[in-house]
Amino acid sequence: MGLKGKLLKASLVLILIAVLPGLPPKTVFPFKPISIAPVRPLAGVLAPNQLLNGAERLHEGGLLQPEGVAVRGNVTYVTVYGGKILELGDQGSVRTVAKLGPECVGTYSERICGRPLGIDFDTKGNNLIVADPYLGIWQVHIKTGEKKLLVPKDRAIIEDGQAASPEALRKIRSRQPNIPNGVAVARNGDFFWSDTASDFIFEDAIQALLCNPSGRLLHYSRAEGKSRVLIDEVYGANGVVLSPDETFVLVGELGGQLIRRYYLKGPKAGTHDVFIDGLPGAVDNLNGDATGFWVGLVIAADESNPSFIAMLAPFPNLRRLLVRLFVLVEAPFRLWHDTTGSDFALRISHHIGHLGGLVGLFPDRGTVLRMDWEGNIVMALHNDDTSSHIISQAVPLGLDHLLLGSPVNQWLGRVKLTPDTLALLKGGKSEPEPKKQPSVGTPSREEL
Questions:
Q1: Of the candidates 156, 154, 160, which has an alpha carbon nearest to the alpha carbon of residue 229?
Q2: In whole numbers, what is the pLDDT of the chain averaged over residues?
Q3: Has UniProt tagged this entry with the keyword Transmembrane helix (predicted)?
Q4: How far apart are CA 260 and CA 265, in angstroms?
Q5: pTM here?
Q6: Strand-strand pairing, 158-159 and 119-121
């Protein structure tokens, strides 16, 4: 058989894999075209700069994937690979506050030993609230390390807060959380949390982002011990933050490169909208204070470096094909590990579909945004020296430093803010942005 014949046969096989009904995986929502707003140009307030260049690498080699960061006074808490929550003292000390899962056998065993992501201080007790995409959402006492599982992955009580009738509202949903990610605690002790996607686990993030959006923003009632869905079909639900007066809650959308807002009080209570879109990167964690909040853009995107998610979004058949190929390649290794416990099979199945395997393809630009509560970008801080890029979260430390978390680094970044940056932050005024044309690509609920 000649080359043309082989190519034809291969093409036919791929077409069949892409379009045949009934093949795995069975997704929550069907594959449909997704429309993502064009990325804003890197001009005006978003213009490139080097304000994050030269980041110090704190505890280099000792902090594996410090994704979530929370600061209280001179003490910093970070979530790291292996199910650990660490306390970093101002004199360089490191203390393990708690370990959520069993011990790890390697960096490829996170589905077993845990990898906590979102973290926030509890408002009802000296605790941290920690979201782990494999082990659920936990309450952890800061001093004793005592743990309490609040939202288990396999038996969470979740109500559909978007249901049309009281009967449907009371119905307990069978769709369990798959990737608990971000968390924000309210003054009354309740918390808001994100479930990134329902179709795949965190280890298979590439497949999850190729499917149609199935992420959710939820509210957890401490008194009732159950959650309620506020927004469904969020494209990679990630960081969560509450406004200072708790009139609304924001959730970052990794795939859509935007932030959504859900109104908790006022005339719009119970509704949601797009807070801001077209951001120059994939939104990760959000961290707020009285005058605004910080946005970590974990994967940069711009006109020269388009998002691979956005490029594939309009093509459902192509995305379905890619997802099915990933599943077919990974399935035998997953089965091998499940039946024999093979360490080699675990290692291979972990790397297939893991977003960390694409880090070498990510743009070098690292970016953090400072926004006010009206939806204006106050300033953008960039780096181009990779001293601490792939930024998951930005948290102020003291009066003039910013800590930079990351899902891939083995250190915690720290940059000293310039006097001009501090003055702009203190004033809270945004520079004028270039006029953005009305976006015809903003995702509608039907499209998503």
A1: 160
A2: 89
A3: no
A4: 16
A5: 0.90
A6: unpaired
